[in-house]
Design a protein that fits this description.
about 850 residues; about 55% helix; alpha+beta
Amino acid sequence: MSDAPPDPAAPARGRGTRARGTAFVRAGRRYVVLHPVSSAFVVVVLSAAALTGTLWGQDASIWGAGPLGTFAVGRWWTVLTALVIPDSPVDAVVSVVLALTALAYAERLIGSRRTAVLLGVLGVGGLLTGIGFHAAAWTVTDLRPVVAAEVPVLDPTTPIVGVVMAASAFAPTLWRRRLRLVGFATLALFALYAGDADSWYRVTAAVIGLGVGAMLARGRERRAWHRSSTRETRTLLALLVAVVGSGPLVALVSGGGRGPLSLVVDAYTQYDDELLARCGRVSSAVCDEQLALLMTRGLGPALLAVTPLVLMLVAAWGLRLGRRAALVLAVLALTASAVIPVVSLVDGRLRIDPWVDGSGGEYVLWALATVAIPLTLVVVLLVSRARFPVRATRRAARTVAGVIGIAFLACATAFFIIESLGRRSFDRDPSIPDLVLLTLRRFLPPAYTNPAGSGTFPHHGPALFAYQWVGVLFWAIAIGAILWLYRRVQRPDPGDTIRYRELLRRGSDTLGFLGTWSGNRHWYSEDRECAVAYRLVGDVALAVADPVAPAVRRPEVLRTFSDFCVEHGWIPAFYSVHAETAADLEGLGWRRVPVGVETVMDLPGLTFAGKAWQKVRQPLTRAEREGYTAVWTRWHELTVSQASQIIAIDEEWVADRALPEMGFTLGSLDELRDRDVRLLLAVGPDGRIEAVTSWMPSWTDGAVTGWTLDFMRRRTDGPNGMMEFLIAKAALQLQEEGAAVLSLSGAPLAEAPDAPMDGDPAPLRPLLRWLAEVLEPAYGFASLFRFKGKFRPRYRELTLAYRDPLHLPAIGAAVGRAYLPDASRREIVALARTAWGGRR
């Protein structure tokens, strides 16, 4: 048996593994150096959890803080141990994650020294203040039922939230709002619904931290409150709806909740307890009936019980997008969540246990949580309805209404028939009215529809299965239809393309003609003297090239167009804009990242003489010597044979790559058909077309002063140098016609030769460089860029401008979909294989 030859790839794999390990270690060291306090806090928390056993689930309440443990018993050290010892493995994980993320961000904002000091000061201050309020509230008899009992608190997240809120004063405006809005909404959610002492202590630490941060940042933060934009208002209202919807779930998860608003959860949890209580007071027959009801409490009714909460979360998602359908859904869901419990309380289906003191405070808090808060939010939504102008198309609205109506009729009819046929599964023979009422009740949460008298329910078989699941099926269909409706919105008027062309003729840059392409929409200023061409991809509005506007009005146009996008629930982005537009956007607070380079030839005085032009002059001279001619024409002037040849050249080019053809800013055959576009063909002595290029015009004061190269195709079996021949002939001919600029268009993902390789502040620059390398085998962007360099062009950087870094994933996905809108799964796989093969 012969020995197998050694695997030459094994050492390489070993080196790769070691390299990744070394890189990981370096990243870890760099993180620790940048965030020493956060890293040390993680070590302290894990060490304390291990030493006290809470990391393994052991009880360490002796180290916890509280009114009795800290003050009455005199364990003063608990105000320190409670801040570093988690009370469970889950608490340990949450504390570590928050320390490595939120606390680390705060440390970057305020520095390590301040972070260390504030961890102690705000942790102890928040804990002592919370304990003080806790003890004071417990002395008030009427508040005892909703005040957390004496359970020692162990919670390292308390100092973390205090420091984060203090550091928020030093964050940029956008992140300051987000930290405070999301932070306090989450803290309030747990405090008002879960109501445990931990939640309230965190709130006090956060409030104190907010005040400390304001004092530390005095003079830095100009004003505490800022006028909210449309997008921020939508986010706030969506968050409020989500909190109202999620509150009962938080109370459920926390064991029923002790917060002042946790009484709303009675509608989801008291059902079984009430039935069992009845069984102890009534006859055996009624008890059997109620026990039969308990048999119907499976997964289906449990899902039906949380349907109102799911509907509000779905509504919150749509509100964030500015959907009018979500506004209607939120109003209906909130109104129903307020009205149905009241009706159930009045007719006895819902019961609230009174407190022992007889104060009636439980009814006040129940009404506040169940009725007042939802109805107040309904009023706020109706007042703010102008913020949600994005309507669904009438056809889509009718379709959804039909689907929901048909689903209801079908489910109700099927349930009625199944229950009628399965009468033997009931403990008594139900009448027709009983079955009708039972059918209607199956579409509402079970806690609100429990009959206060005698009722009839199935015990087994298909009748029981239908009883458990018919309501869930209907609401699943309804929610799916609503989510589909969110995507079917009325698009604004795509604009008058003729007017856009008129504005282009007054004055346009080299890439302005891209805005005339199919798939683009047009926004106009109120006086219709300025325009922006954009492409709507999902919820992202990609403005194509620079706006068509005088330089003095460009900032105004950029700001107004951005507001227009936000009003419609879109994310605005400007793609392939030049330095002047990018500078104006930066003045408005936007950011930018390079996405390509435009190569421009200045035609006045251009000659191809000298050694520097040898790589262009040789193909030009050779092609002319061999009888090739450059023919100017337009698509509508082509003969049938010429058009057929161009189509064949294009199909050959696409088939040769077996990859999806890109669009968006890269033209195809469709763009050649525009009457303003000129074609330049390389025609051989035999009349065969060997190559084709297309040229888009740009104007100054109504006169064509420039042309931009777009479409480039040549026969794979044709002679070399045809593209150099056509571009050189175009430059010479257009120079004679009086054109001043010839643009060779933009090269995606390319970088100018003088672009800095290191020290670039743009976070996406390394990613774009890597992406350019990956896509090079598939599309040859870098090769095309080097080819254009033969013509000694002037380089103009093209950038992507965006307002919010969190929008980058959505913008990146939109750009990808814009370039490859029709790519099949097989083509994407082929692209990935080609790119991967090229990387190897």
